[in-house]
Amino acid sequence: MTALKNDRFIKALLREPIDRTPLWLMRQAGRYLPEYRALRSQVKDFFTFCQTPELACEVTLQPVNRFALDAAIIFSDILTVPIAMGCDIHMHSMRGPVAPNPICDKKMIDALDAKNAVEKLDYVSQAIKLTKKELNNSIPLIGFAGSPWTVATYMVEGQSSKTFEKIKSMLFRDSQIMHELLQKITDVTIDYLNAQIHAGADVVMMFDSWGGVLAQREYQTFSLNYMKQISERILREHNHKKIPLIFFSKGCGLYLENIVTSGCDAIGLDWTMDLSLAKKIVNNRVALQGNLDPCILLSTPEKVRAAATDILNVYNNETGFVFNLGHGISKDTPIENVEALVETVSTGSRERQ
User: Fold this and answer.
1) Each residue of 105-148: pLDDT tens digit?
2) For 11, phi and psi rounded to 5 degrees?
3) Is the peptide bond before 291 cis (omega within 30 degrees of 0)?
4) Which are the catalytic amino acids?
5) Distance of alpha carbon 139 from alpha carbon 202, whole angstroms
6) Residue 287: phi, psi to the nearest 5?
7) Which residues of 17-43 are buried (b: 16+ CB within 10 A; e: fewer)?
8) 0.85 exceeded by the pTM?
9) Are the C-beta atoms of 271 and 290 separated by less than 8 Å?
10) What secondary structure letter does DSSP report for 2?
11) Among residues 70, 75, 155, 73, which one has the least CA distance to residue 108?
12) 122-135 helix and 53-66 helix, angle to the nearest 10 degrees
């Protein structure tokens, strides 16, 4: 395999020497980019857009063609997995993802098709292959999936939720069927991530957007334990290269010690966690990624630079840290603020050498 021209992102995740702090942004390919909006307008249905490898490749490349980012992340969605398992989900323009017939009992869980799901997800592997060819080993490509718990929340709730009462009542009322659902999603996710790695993904990331709605005991039992299964069963080396694994559980800063021992190489932090404290807790056992509040990007370039500098000061260009946002970039983010952020991280961290 040809070596990557820029591998500082992977080196930072593996806590190897780096020349400067690497940077990428969650949801970096998205609606804040005019070129994304123009391309997206050509396809009415969001999931059809995701399922077209050529479009997914083009969108993945848009932010890295515009900004000096240190990684690309394949354009897809965490809900491709339940759709492939036979759960009817569509994207509503105002309400977000909607499952008209949410999972509510064991019969519906048993009916989910785990056997053929990964084959139906081959379009993601094809998008990865196309993107790797276009990147020409310039920077790493990240593959990803949603955590089993987070994916399950959409399948059971039927849409985004503020209270998560449906899935949490299922969890407490009949934990056995909850475990059956999570195990099915986990088994598919493992095969899905391995397919992404075989297709060329250099790094994989697990998005646990709703882990933080659980108390610590339930978080460990119903979210982290399944993520740990994934860490134990996916490829961690491919074509003689290490494949770093990132876990991101939003709202779970208090559970950081549990996540450290879960088998991942790096932990993504949201903006509610103090980075200095997180650094002390992990004590160089894993890398950290984060954790600028994405809403700061709605302010001014000057405030963006100041906030980014504060974060850079914590690691002072040490390895084991990747600069990112604490969650996905807002669709209303001005381009000039992203430019200010990229410039601050890329030049500011290099000047510290």
Assistant:
1) 999 999 999 999 999 999 999 999 999 999 999 999 999 999 99
2) -60, -40
3) yes
4) 27, 31, 40, 77, 154
5) 9
6) -85, 160
7) ebebbbbbbbbbbbebbeebeeebeee
8) yes
9) yes
10) P
11) 155
12) 40
